[in-house]
Each structure stands twice: as structure tokens, then as C-alpha cells.
Fold this protein.
Amino acid sequence: MTSIRRPAVLWSLLLGLGCATARPQAVSAPVSAPASAPLEAQEADAVFTGHRFQDGTVLPEVRIHYATLGTPRRDASGAVTNAVLMLHWTGASGAVLRGQPFQDALFAPGRPLDATKYFLIFPDSVGHGRSSKPSDGARTKFPAYGYRDMVELQHQLVTGTLGITRLHAIVGLSMGGMNAWQWSELYPDAVEGVMPIVSLPTRIAGRNLLWRRFVSGQVRGDPEWKDGFYTAPPRGWLEAFPVFRMMLDGVPHLQATLPDAAAADAFIATARAQAAGMDANDILYALESSRDYDPEGALDAIQARVFALNFSDDEFNPVSLRTLETLMPWVKHGRFVVQEGSASSFGHFTQAHPELWADQVAAFLKFLEER
């Protein structure tokens, strides 16, 4: 069952993190987007009662916060035809994807996902933003949710709460990109096309797995963590995040912007300050939720059109692995681009700079029109 709760105040933005593993095929030039007036979003909460998670835990209520931009368009049968689901990265929320950089580059009039043409949906995935999460009070008693739990709740929101049987598209970034891959397999008739950005259609392994285990170990092994019932940010988390933050950035960008010890120390101090503003349990749960992600075995069953986008300077997706070259041929209607990185891009975190890849979104939408 679903009920709706509409909050009276807006949520402040939280700097998010990242996730996933690929190689250059095409180069894309940055898009300069004019500043636009802020678009007004409609926000609400969907509350699902008696929801069972994959670990068997049942919560009396699970809250999924979401926002929308634009107006649904319907065909002769009344079905919505212009819905696009926007999925955020680890540690972020839908509010980040509604920020001014995204509005200017993607959603403003004349931009690829013009909100006067598309009905844009921005959920906070479970464990994130204003949706149900460990820091609401349950802490380590919260269900050990996985990516499948995220996707199932997103699907309930889209189909049950919003009454949309088929999405025109999903655009997902990092964790959201992995969720997009899962959507295309779990609900093959529910979406026309997906655009996974900085994510890969294979299990988390290698470097990507190592840094997750490193951060989790630093938190869980810290005496100040107190099995999740800490009173101040555990020092292990504060020490781990600068390494985490370094991995998000591009090697050329760090080389150009950190020329000496003072600059490096400032980077570390800024990262520690960012970490102090995050909840360690929320991040721990979010990082460990990738345990059930492995879409590789069902790629040949995907019916949606897939346009995957990665960046050559993404240290979480090393181009030397040639993962997309190996796996994308299994996708019936699939294309991929690995955009060239530079000193002015941001590695994995180029995802947070949509002006650098907005033209690829336009290419994806054009791909959807091909029959």
C-alpha cells in the first residue's frame, strides 16, 4: 500500500560520492549551457507499508522521497509517454540532480531533457536523502538493503505511486547507472531506453571492490564506531574519506591542481570536513549495498536500447580492462562511448559536471528515436 506525504520545506544539497569499471571510443566536447532561472520541482513522499527487503526484514513503513519536473504527456489510451527517471550516485540524492548545473545543462528550455517536453522523476533511493535510511534512528538495525531493493522501490514508486507503466528513459549516474542496468533486466517491458553513466554491467570486483572494503573496514574497525551507535563521526571514516575522494577525481586533474604539499594538505582537509558532515552508517550501508549487483549474465535478454557512457580518466573504470568492449556486444540494442578525460575533467566525478557530457544525452535521446 502507498500513501503520499508532501513536505513543506526543501532539503539542502549533500555532496555525494561515486561508484563502478572500461575504454575510449569517442570523444565529446564540453557543452556550454546558459544560466537559466531555477525550475520549480514538485516534491512528495511515497510511503510503502509492510515492505519486505531482500534480506527478509520487513519494515512497517518505507519512505521514498521524490520530486518531479515537467508535465506528463499521455497517448490516446492515457499512458504517460514522456517520463524519464533520473537516478543519483552513492551518497547523493535526487536534489543533487536538480541542482543548477544539471538544470542549465540538461533540463532548461532547449536542453536535451527540456522539462517543458519531458516529465522528469528524481527519487532519493532507499538509504539516501530524505528517504528511509539508517540515520533516521534505526542505525545498524536498519535492513541491509541491496541494489535490488533500491530498484524494486523505484519501480513501486513509478508504477504504483505515479501510475506510469512504461518509462521513456532512465538516466543513471554511477550507482544510479547500475540501477539502470538492473531496471533493463528486471523490468524489460517497463522502459524504452537506459543511459548508464560511469557504471558497468558486471559485478563489483578488483579496485572498485577493494576501496569499498577499505572504507567499510576503516569504519567497522574503529572503536569509536561502537557498532553504529557513535556520538561523533568515527575517526576511521574521517581518515578513509580523503582516499575515497582522491579515487573519485581524475589523475590529470589532480596532477594539474595539486602541485605541492600545501595544495595536497588543503585537499585532505576539505575532504575530512566533507566527511564530518556525512553519516558514517548511511555511507557504510550505501557502499555495502552493491553486494548483490551482477547484471552480466542477463545482458542478452535486455529489450531496451542502451547507451552507456564512461570517461577515460575514471579510476573506478580503468579503460585497460576493456569491459564495455567485451560485454556490450551481448546487448541487442546497445551503444557505448568512453569520453576522453583531460586536466579540465574530473575522472569518475565528471558525472557531477553535466556540461561536459550533455551532448551525449542528446545522442542517447536521438538513439531512442531510431527504429
Summary: Strands lie at 2-5, 42-52, 58-69, 83-87, 119-123, 167-173, 191-197, 305-311, 334-339. Confidence is low (pLDDT under 50) at residues 1-33.
